[in-house]
Design a protein that fits this description.
The protein is of the alpha/beta class. The protein has helices spanning about 1-20, 30-35, 65-70, 85-95, 120-125, 185-190, 195-205, 230-235, 245-270, 305-310, 335-340, 425-440, 450-460, 470-475; strands spanning about 40-45, 75, 80, 130-135, 155-160, 180, 185, 215-220, 275-280, 310, 310-315, 325, 330, 380-385, 385-390, 395-400, 405-410. Helix 7 packs parallel to helix 9 (about 245-270). The structure holds calcium ion.
Length: about 475
Protein backbone atom coordinates (compact mmCIF):
# COMPACT_ATOMS: atom_id res chain seq x y z
CA UNK A 1 0.00 0.00 0.00
CA UNK A 2 1.07 3.54 -0.62
CA UNK A 3 1.21 4.39 3.09
CA UNK A 4 3.40 1.38 3.93
CA UNK A 5 5.58 2.18 0.95
CA UNK A 6 6.20 5.70 2.26
CA UNK A 7 7.05 4.41 5.75
CA UNK A 8 9.39 1.84 4.23
CA UNK A 9 11.12 4.51 2.22
CA UNK A 10 11.56 6.62 5.34
CA UNK A 11 12.94 3.66 7.28
CA UNK A 12 15.33 2.79 4.51
CA UNK A 13 16.50 6.40 4.36
CA UNK A 14 17.03 6.35 8.13
CA UNK A 15 19.02 3.09 8.03
CA UNK A 16 21.04 4.36 5.10
CA UNK A 17 21.75 7.50 7.09
CA UNK A 18 23.00 5.43 10.02
CA UNK A 19 25.26 3.49 7.67
CA UNK A 20 26.65 6.68 6.19
CA UNK A 21 27.67 8.39 9.39
CA UNK A 22 28.43 5.32 11.52
CA UNK A 23 26.81 5.21 14.95
CA UNK A 24 29.72 6.56 16.98
CA UNK A 25 30.74 9.34 14.57
CA UNK A 26 27.22 10.62 14.04
CA UNK A 27 27.24 13.95 15.85
CA UNK A 28 24.79 16.78 15.68
CA UNK A 29 25.80 19.07 12.84
CA UNK A 30 27.09 22.49 13.81
CA UNK A 31 23.84 24.07 12.87
CA UNK A 32 24.62 27.60 13.90
CA UNK A 33 27.90 27.62 12.02
CA UNK A 34 26.63 25.94 8.91
CA UNK A 35 23.17 27.38 8.50
CA UNK A 36 22.55 30.00 5.87
CA UNK A 37 22.40 33.32 7.70
CA UNK A 38 19.59 35.79 7.44
CA UNK A 39 20.82 38.83 5.56
CA UNK A 40 19.80 42.34 6.56
CA UNK A 41 21.11 44.96 4.14
CA UNK A 42 20.54 48.44 5.55
CA UNK A 43 21.03 51.25 3.06
CA UNK A 44 20.68 54.87 4.11
CA UNK A 45 20.49 57.87 1.83
CA UNK A 46 22.74 60.93 1.46
CA UNK A 47 24.24 60.91 4.96
CA UNK A 48 27.51 62.72 5.63
CA UNK A 49 30.62 60.65 6.23
CA UNK A 50 31.11 61.72 9.83
CA UNK A 51 27.47 62.08 10.84
CA UNK A 52 27.49 59.18 13.29
CA UNK A 53 28.92 58.77 16.76
CA UNK A 54 31.07 55.89 15.56
CA UNK A 55 32.47 58.10 12.81
CA UNK A 56 33.38 60.85 15.25
CA UNK A 57 30.39 63.20 15.13
CA UNK A 58 30.22 65.63 18.03
CA UNK A 59 26.77 67.15 17.54
CA UNK A 60 24.70 64.14 16.43
CA UNK A 61 23.56 61.13 18.46
CA UNK A 62 23.47 57.62 17.02
CA UNK A 63 23.75 55.24 20.02
CA UNK A 64 22.21 52.22 18.27
CA UNK A 65 24.49 52.45 15.26
CA UNK A 66 27.44 53.06 17.57
CA UNK A 67 26.68 49.80 19.37
CA UNK A 68 26.33 48.00 16.05
CA UNK A 69 29.72 49.44 15.06
CA UNK A 70 31.33 48.01 18.20
CA UNK A 71 30.04 44.58 17.26
CA UNK A 72 30.89 44.87 13.56
CA UNK A 73 33.76 44.84 11.16
CA UNK A 74 34.28 48.45 10.07
CA UNK A 75 35.42 49.09 6.50
CA UNK A 76 37.43 52.28 6.64
CA UNK A 77 37.73 52.68 2.89
CA UNK A 78 34.36 51.61 1.55
CA UNK A 79 33.12 52.93 -1.78
CA UNK A 80 29.81 52.88 -3.57
CA UNK A 81 29.81 52.50 -7.35
CA UNK A 82 28.07 55.86 -7.95
CA UNK A 83 27.70 59.15 -6.15
CA UNK A 84 23.96 59.47 -6.78
CA UNK A 85 21.02 57.34 -5.66
CA UNK A 86 19.77 55.22 -8.55
CA UNK A 87 23.02 54.04 -10.19
CA UNK A 88 24.46 53.33 -6.74
CA UNK A 89 21.52 51.02 -6.09
CA UNK A 90 21.82 49.44 -9.54
CA UNK A 91 25.43 48.49 -8.76
CA UNK A 92 24.67 47.32 -5.24
CA UNK A 93 21.77 45.06 -6.20
CA UNK A 94 23.36 43.52 -9.31
CA UNK A 95 26.94 43.26 -8.08
CA UNK A 96 28.04 44.74 -11.41
CA UNK A 97 29.25 48.10 -12.55
CA UNK A 98 25.99 49.67 -13.61
CA UNK A 99 27.67 51.20 -16.69
CA UNK A 100 27.92 47.64 -18.06
CA UNK A 101 24.18 47.75 -18.66
CA UNK A 102 23.55 51.42 -19.36
CA UNK A 103 22.36 52.48 -15.88
CA UNK A 104 25.03 55.17 -15.71
CA UNK A 105 22.89 58.17 -14.84
CA UNK A 106 20.31 58.87 -12.21
CA UNK A 107 16.89 57.60 -13.11
CA UNK A 108 14.80 59.55 -15.58
CA UNK A 109 11.33 59.14 -17.06
CA UNK A 110 10.02 55.62 -17.44
CA UNK A 111 13.40 53.94 -17.31
CA UNK A 112 14.44 51.38 -14.72
CA UNK A 113 17.00 48.74 -13.88
CA UNK A 114 17.40 46.97 -17.25
CA UNK A 115 15.27 43.85 -17.26
CA UNK A 116 17.99 41.44 -18.31
CA UNK A 117 19.89 42.20 -15.10
CA UNK A 118 19.38 39.87 -12.15
CA UNK A 119 19.27 41.17 -8.60
CA UNK A 120 20.72 39.85 -5.38
CA UNK A 121 17.17 39.02 -4.31
CA UNK A 122 16.80 36.68 -7.31
CA UNK A 123 20.10 35.04 -6.47
CA UNK A 124 19.14 34.53 -2.84
CA UNK A 125 15.68 33.30 -3.73
CA UNK A 126 17.41 30.57 -5.74
CA UNK A 127 19.26 29.70 -2.53
CA UNK A 128 15.98 29.18 -0.72
CA UNK A 129 15.63 32.61 0.87
CA UNK A 130 12.48 34.55 1.46
CA UNK A 131 13.16 38.05 0.13
CA UNK A 132 11.78 41.47 0.94
CA UNK A 133 12.48 45.13 0.35
CA UNK A 134 11.26 47.81 2.71
CA UNK A 135 11.73 51.47 1.81
CA UNK A 136 13.03 53.27 -1.23
CA UNK A 137 13.25 51.42 -4.55
CA UNK A 138 14.32 54.04 -7.13
CA UNK A 139 15.07 51.44 -9.80
CA UNK A 140 12.05 52.14 -11.96
CA UNK A 141 8.41 52.87 -11.27
CA UNK A 142 6.78 51.25 -14.32
CA UNK A 143 5.14 47.88 -13.60
CA UNK A 144 7.88 45.82 -15.26
CA UNK A 145 10.49 47.29 -12.90
CA UNK A 146 8.47 46.72 -9.75
CA UNK A 147 10.58 45.09 -7.01
CA UNK A 148 8.20 42.14 -6.93
CA UNK A 149 9.20 41.51 -10.57
CA UNK A 150 12.87 41.66 -9.59
CA UNK A 151 13.22 38.90 -7.05
CA UNK A 152 11.58 40.46 -4.02
CA UNK A 153 8.64 38.48 -2.73
CA UNK A 154 7.50 41.34 -0.55
CA UNK A 155 7.66 45.10 -0.93
CA UNK A 156 6.61 47.88 1.39
CA UNK A 157 7.79 51.29 0.33
CA UNK A 158 7.95 53.84 -2.43
CA UNK A 159 8.99 53.25 -6.02
CA UNK A 160 10.42 56.76 -6.34
CA UNK A 161 13.56 58.42 -5.02
CA UNK A 162 12.35 60.62 -2.18
CA UNK A 163 9.19 61.82 -0.53
CA UNK A 164 7.60 63.49 2.47
CA UNK A 165 8.28 61.86 5.84
CA UNK A 166 4.65 62.44 6.79
CA UNK A 167 1.55 60.66 5.47
CA UNK A 168 0.41 61.52 1.97
CA UNK A 169 -3.14 61.91 0.82
CA UNK A 170 -4.96 58.95 -0.72
CA UNK A 171 -5.37 61.10 -3.81
CA UNK A 172 -1.64 60.85 -4.54
CA UNK A 173 -1.10 57.88 -6.85
CA UNK A 174 2.46 58.68 -7.91
CA UNK A 175 5.70 56.79 -7.26
CA UNK A 176 6.10 58.54 -3.90
CA UNK A 177 3.03 56.97 -2.39
CA UNK A 178 3.70 53.98 -0.17
CA UNK A 179 2.54 50.57 -1.23
CA UNK A 180 2.56 47.17 0.36
CA UNK A 181 2.78 44.18 -1.97
CA UNK A 182 1.39 46.18 -4.86
CA UNK A 183 -1.47 47.91 -3.01
CA UNK A 184 -1.36 51.58 -2.04
CA UNK A 185 -1.47 52.12 1.69
CA UNK A 186 -3.83 54.43 3.47
CA UNK A 187 -0.91 56.30 4.96
CA UNK A 188 -2.85 58.27 7.54
CA UNK A 189 -4.18 54.99 8.90
CA UNK A 190 -0.77 53.35 8.99
CA UNK A 191 1.75 55.83 10.34
CA UNK A 192 2.73 59.27 11.54
CA UNK A 193 6.44 59.31 10.58
CA UNK A 194 7.99 57.41 7.68
CA UNK A 195 11.32 56.44 9.26
CA UNK A 196 9.49 54.87 12.21
CA UNK A 197 7.09 53.06 9.90
CA UNK A 198 9.90 51.41 7.93
CA UNK A 199 11.20 49.87 11.16
CA UNK A 200 7.75 48.51 11.98
CA UNK A 201 7.46 46.99 8.51
CA UNK A 202 10.96 45.51 8.72
CA UNK A 203 10.14 43.99 12.11
CA UNK A 204 6.97 42.47 10.66
CA UNK A 205 9.04 40.74 7.96
CA UNK A 206 11.66 39.54 10.45
CA UNK A 207 9.08 38.18 12.87
CA UNK A 208 7.05 36.32 10.26
CA UNK A 209 7.08 32.60 11.14
CA UNK A 210 8.83 30.87 8.26
CA UNK A 211 11.55 28.22 8.30
CA UNK A 212 13.48 29.80 5.43
CA UNK A 213 16.33 32.24 6.01
CA UNK A 214 15.37 35.75 4.99
CA UNK A 215 16.95 38.52 2.97
CA UNK A 216 15.69 41.96 3.87
CA UNK A 217 16.86 44.99 1.91
CA UNK A 218 15.95 47.90 4.15
CA UNK A 219 16.45 51.11 2.19
CA UNK A 220 15.71 54.22 4.20
CA UNK A 221 14.94 57.54 2.56
CA UNK A 222 16.63 59.33 5.48
CA UNK A 223 18.43 61.64 5.65
CA UNK A 224 17.65 62.58 2.03
CA UNK A 225 15.63 65.79 1.57
CA UNK A 226 12.95 66.98 2.29
CA UNK A 227 14.13 67.99 5.73
CA UNK A 228 11.23 66.71 7.80
CA UNK A 229 12.21 66.00 11.40
CA UNK A 230 9.97 64.50 14.02
CA UNK A 231 8.95 67.24 16.43
CA UNK A 232 10.28 65.60 19.61
CA UNK A 233 13.72 65.04 18.14
CA UNK A 234 13.70 68.53 16.70
CA UNK A 235 13.09 69.93 20.22
CA UNK A 236 15.78 67.62 21.61
CA UNK A 237 18.44 69.26 19.43
CA UNK A 238 17.62 72.88 20.32
CA UNK A 239 21.26 73.53 21.16
CA UNK A 240 22.14 73.24 17.45
CA UNK A 241 21.88 76.79 16.19
CA UNK A 242 21.89 76.23 12.45
CA UNK A 243 18.29 75.41 11.59
CA UNK A 244 19.08 72.98 8.78
CA UNK A 245 21.64 71.12 10.85
CA UNK A 246 19.18 70.87 13.72
CA UNK A 247 16.61 69.26 11.42
CA UNK A 248 19.27 66.96 10.03
CA UNK A 249 20.33 65.92 13.55
CA UNK A 250 16.72 65.09 14.38
CA UNK A 251 16.33 63.03 11.19
CA UNK A 252 19.54 61.12 11.93
CA UNK A 253 18.31 60.45 15.47
CA UNK A 254 15.07 59.02 14.08
CA UNK A 255 17.05 56.92 11.63
CA UNK A 256 19.25 55.60 14.42
CA UNK A 257 16.25 54.85 16.62
CA UNK A 258 14.53 53.07 13.75
CA UNK A 259 17.58 50.91 12.99
CA UNK A 260 17.82 50.17 16.72
CA UNK A 261 14.25 48.89 16.67
CA UNK A 262 15.00 46.66 13.66
CA UNK A 263 18.11 45.23 15.35
CA UNK A 264 16.00 44.62 18.45
CA UNK A 265 13.53 42.66 16.30
CA UNK A 266 16.42 40.57 14.97
CA UNK A 267 17.55 39.91 18.53
CA UNK A 268 14.02 39.03 19.65
CA UNK A 269 13.79 36.50 16.81
CA UNK A 270 16.60 34.59 18.53
CA UNK A 271 18.64 34.63 15.32
CA UNK A 272 20.95 37.61 15.79
CA UNK A 273 24.03 35.39 15.80
CA UNK A 274 23.11 33.91 12.46
CA UNK A 275 22.15 37.16 10.79
CA UNK A 276 24.55 39.01 8.55
CA UNK A 277 23.86 42.71 9.05
CA UNK A 278 25.33 45.13 6.53
CA UNK A 279 25.13 48.89 6.99
CA UNK A 280 25.95 51.20 4.08
CA UNK A 281 25.28 54.76 2.90
CA UNK A 282 24.25 55.05 -0.78
CA UNK A 283 26.48 58.05 -1.62
CA UNK A 284 28.29 60.90 0.08
CA UNK A 285 26.59 63.67 2.02
CA UNK A 286 24.36 65.86 -0.12
CA UNK A 287 24.84 69.58 -0.62
CA UNK A 288 21.22 70.23 0.35
CA UNK A 289 20.67 68.46 3.70
CA UNK A 290 23.30 69.97 6.03
CA UNK A 291 25.26 66.73 6.16
CA UNK A 292 28.95 66.74 7.09
CA UNK A 293 31.50 64.88 4.98
CA UNK A 294 34.29 65.55 7.46
CA UNK A 295 37.77 65.28 6.00
CA UNK A 296 36.74 64.59 2.42
CA UNK A 297 36.70 66.90 -0.49
CA UNK A 298 33.42 66.99 -2.42
CA UNK A 299 29.89 65.86 -1.78
CA UNK A 300 27.15 63.78 -3.37
CA UNK A 301 27.39 63.71 -7.16
CA UNK A 302 31.18 63.97 -7.37
CA UNK A 303 34.10 61.59 -7.86
CA UNK A 304 35.90 63.19 -4.92
CA UNK A 305 36.08 61.00 -1.84
CA UNK A 306 33.15 62.94 -0.40
CA UNK A 307 30.92 61.66 -3.20
CA UNK A 308 31.79 57.97 -3.20
CA UNK A 309 33.40 57.01 0.11
CA UNK A 310 30.87 55.98 2.71
CA UNK A 311 30.47 54.47 6.17
CA UNK A 312 30.13 50.70 5.95
CA UNK A 313 30.07 47.90 8.50
CA UNK A 314 29.12 44.23 8.73
CA UNK A 315 28.13 42.04 11.65
CA UNK A 316 27.72 38.27 11.68
CA UNK A 317 28.51 36.95 15.17
CA UNK A 318 28.60 33.27 14.17
CA UNK A 319 31.08 33.86 11.42
CA UNK A 320 33.55 36.66 12.11
CA UNK A 321 34.79 38.74 15.00
CA UNK A 322 33.46 42.20 15.67
CA UNK A 323 35.83 45.06 16.40
CA UNK A 324 37.95 44.50 13.30
CA UNK A 325 38.88 47.46 11.16
CA UNK A 326 39.59 46.80 7.51
CA UNK A 327 41.74 49.39 5.79
CA UNK A 328 41.78 47.90 2.30
CA UNK A 329 39.46 49.62 -0.17
CA UNK A 330 36.23 47.72 -0.69
CA UNK A 331 33.27 48.34 -2.97
CA UNK A 332 29.53 48.06 -2.53
CA UNK A 333 29.86 45.69 -5.51
CA UNK A 334 31.55 43.23 -3.11
CA UNK A 335 28.37 42.78 -1.12
CA UNK A 336 26.61 40.67 -3.78
CA UNK A 337 29.30 37.95 -3.91
CA UNK A 338 29.72 38.19 -0.12
CA UNK A 339 26.01 37.59 0.42
CA UNK A 340 26.02 34.75 -2.11
CA UNK A 341 28.94 33.07 -0.37
CA UNK A 342 27.26 33.54 3.01
CA UNK A 343 24.19 31.82 1.53
CA UNK A 344 26.43 28.87 0.56
CA UNK A 345 26.41 29.58 -3.16
CA UNK A 346 29.49 29.95 -5.30
CA UNK A 347 29.82 33.60 -6.43
CA UNK A 348 32.21 32.49 -9.20
CA UNK A 349 29.47 30.51 -10.88
CA UNK A 350 26.99 33.39 -10.96
CA UNK A 351 26.19 34.70 -14.43
CA UNK A 352 26.75 37.34 -15.60
CA UNK A 353 30.16 37.68 -14.00
CA UNK A 354 30.25 39.81 -10.86
CA UNK A 355 32.62 42.74 -10.44
CA UNK A 356 33.23 42.45 -6.72
CA UNK A 357 34.86 39.90 -4.46
CA UNK A 358 33.60 37.81 -1.57
CA UNK A 359 34.83 39.65 1.53
CA UNK A 360 34.39 36.79 4.01
CA UNK A 361 37.83 35.17 3.58
CA UNK A 362 39.50 38.48 4.39
CA UNK A 363 37.82 38.82 7.77
CA UNK A 364 39.10 37.19 10.94
CA UNK A 365 36.88 34.21 11.74
CA UNK A 366 35.54 33.69 15.22
CA UNK A 367 38.33 32.18 17.30
CA UNK A 368 41.01 32.84 14.67
CA UNK A 369 44.03 34.96 15.53
CA UNK A 370 44.74 36.16 12.02
CA UNK A 371 42.95 36.70 8.75
CA UNK A 372 43.32 33.98 6.16
CA UNK A 373 44.31 36.14 3.22
CA UNK A 374 45.39 39.65 2.45
CA UNK A 375 43.17 41.79 0.30
CA UNK A 376 44.07 41.78 -3.38
CA UNK A 377 45.22 45.04 -4.94
CA UNK A 378 42.61 45.80 -7.56
CA UNK A 379 41.34 48.87 -9.36
CA UNK A 380 37.96 50.43 -8.61
CA UNK A 381 36.21 52.51 -11.27
CA UNK A 382 33.58 55.23 -11.47
CA UNK A 383 31.93 57.10 -14.33
CA UNK A 384 28.87 59.24 -14.81
CA UNK A 385 28.96 61.07 -18.09
CA UNK A 386 31.72 63.70 -18.26
CA UNK A 387 33.57 62.66 -15.09
CA UNK A 388 35.25 59.33 -14.40
CA UNK A 389 37.71 58.05 -11.81
CA UNK A 390 39.86 55.07 -10.95
CA UNK A 391 41.61 54.11 -7.75
CA UNK A 392 44.44 51.60 -7.44
CA UNK A 393 46.33 51.30 -4.18
CA UNK A 394 46.89 54.79 -2.81
CA UNK A 395 46.58 56.45 -6.21
CA UNK A 396 43.41 57.95 -7.58
CA UNK A 397 42.86 59.56 -10.94
CA UNK A 398 39.91 61.75 -11.90
CA UNK A 399 39.28 62.47 -15.56
CA UNK A 400 36.88 65.21 -16.62
CA UNK A 401 36.09 65.70 -20.28
CA UNK A 402 36.59 69.48 -20.35
CA UNK A 403 39.93 69.43 -18.56
CA UNK A 404 43.11 69.14 -20.60
CA UNK A 405 44.70 66.52 -18.40
CA UNK A 406 43.49 64.21 -15.66
CA UNK A 407 43.92 64.89 -11.95
CA UNK A 408 46.05 62.55 -9.86
CA UNK A 409 46.13 62.23 -6.09
CA UNK A 410 47.90 60.11 -3.53
CA UNK A 411 45.22 59.36 -0.95
CA UNK A 412 47.65 58.11 1.70
CA UNK A 413 49.55 61.41 1.71
CA UNK A 414 46.75 63.70 0.65
CA UNK A 415 43.36 62.27 1.67
CA UNK A 416 41.73 65.67 1.02
CA UNK A 417 42.72 65.52 -2.67
CA UNK A 418 44.21 69.00 -2.73
CA UNK A 419 47.51 68.39 -4.57
CA UNK A 420 47.28 67.36 -8.20
CA UNK A 421 50.32 65.16 -8.87
CA UNK A 422 49.53 64.35 -12.50
CA UNK A 423 52.53 66.13 -13.98
CA UNK A 424 55.01 64.88 -11.34
CA UNK A 425 53.88 61.27 -11.69
CA UNK A 426 53.23 60.76 -15.36
CA UNK A 427 53.81 57.01 -14.99
CA UNK A 428 50.93 56.62 -12.52
CA UNK A 429 48.79 58.99 -14.55
CA UNK A 430 49.31 56.99 -17.73
CA UNK A 431 48.80 53.62 -16.04
CA UNK A 432 45.59 54.63 -14.34
CA UNK A 433 44.26 56.33 -17.44
CA UNK A 434 44.94 53.17 -19.44
CA UNK A 435 43.20 51.04 -16.81
CA UNK A 436 40.19 53.35 -16.93
CA UNK A 437 40.07 53.24 -20.73
CA UNK A 438 40.35 49.44 -20.72
CA UNK A 439 37.44 49.21 -18.33
CA UNK A 440 35.42 51.58 -20.52
CA UNK A 441 35.86 49.19 -23.43
CA UNK A 442 33.61 46.77 -21.53
CA UNK A 443 30.78 49.29 -21.02
CA UNK A 444 27.74 50.11 -23.10
CA UNK A 445 26.29 53.47 -24.09
CA UNK A 446 24.10 54.90 -21.32
CA UNK A 447 20.45 53.96 -21.90
CA UNK A 448 19.37 57.44 -20.81
CA UNK A 449 20.94 60.72 -19.85
CA UNK A 450 19.90 63.36 -17.35
CA UNK A 451 20.77 66.22 -19.66
CA UNK A 452 23.07 69.16 -20.16
CA UNK A 453 22.51 70.83 -16.80
CA UNK A 454 23.83 67.80 -14.89
CA UNK A 455 26.67 67.31 -17.34
CA UNK A 456 27.84 70.87 -16.71
CA UNK A 457 27.29 70.40 -13.00
CA UNK A 458 29.65 67.40 -13.08
CA UNK A 459 32.31 69.41 -14.89
CA UNK A 460 32.13 72.31 -12.42
CA UNK A 461 32.24 70.02 -9.39
CA UNK A 462 35.62 68.65 -10.41
CA UNK A 463 37.46 71.89 -11.00
CA UNK A 464 40.49 72.26 -8.75
CA UNK A 465 39.41 75.78 -7.80
CA UNK A 466 35.98 74.66 -6.58
CA UNK A 467 37.07 73.79 -3.07
CA UNK A 468 35.56 74.14 0.38
CA UNK A 469 32.03 73.38 1.53
CA UNK A 470 30.66 76.78 0.62
CA UNK A 471 31.76 76.43 -3.00
CA UNK A 472 30.69 72.76 -3.13
CA UNK A 473 27.23 73.53 -1.78
CA UNK A 474 26.64 75.98 -4.63
CA UNK A 475 26.68 72.98 -6.98
CA UNK A 476 23.93 70.62 -5.82
CA1 LIG B 1 21.39 59.08 -2.21
Amino acid sequence: MAHDGAVNALLQAFLFGLLLCGLSACQAPELDQEAQPNILLILIDDAGYVDFGFQGSVDLQTPHLDRLAEESVIFEQAYVSASVCSPSRAGLLTGRYQQRFGHEFNLKGNHGLPLQEKTLAEALMQQGYRTAVVGKWHLGSSPEYHPMQRGFQHFTGLLGGSRSYFPMSVENTGPQRLQRDGQFLDEEEEFTYLTDFLAAEAARIIQKPDPRPWFLYLAYTAPHTPMHPREDWYQHFQSIEVEGRRKYAAMQASLDQSIGAVLEAVKASGEADQTLVVFLNDNGGATTNHSDNGPWRGMKGSKWEGGIRVPCMMRWPNRFQGGQKIEAPISALDLFPTALAAARADPQSWQPELDGINLLPFLRDQGAKARKWEFPKRPLFWRRGPAAAVRLGDWKLIRVDDQESPLLFNLAEDPGETINLASQHQDHTENLLAALQNWEQELVEPLWDTGQYWRDNQRKKHRMDVIGREAERKLP
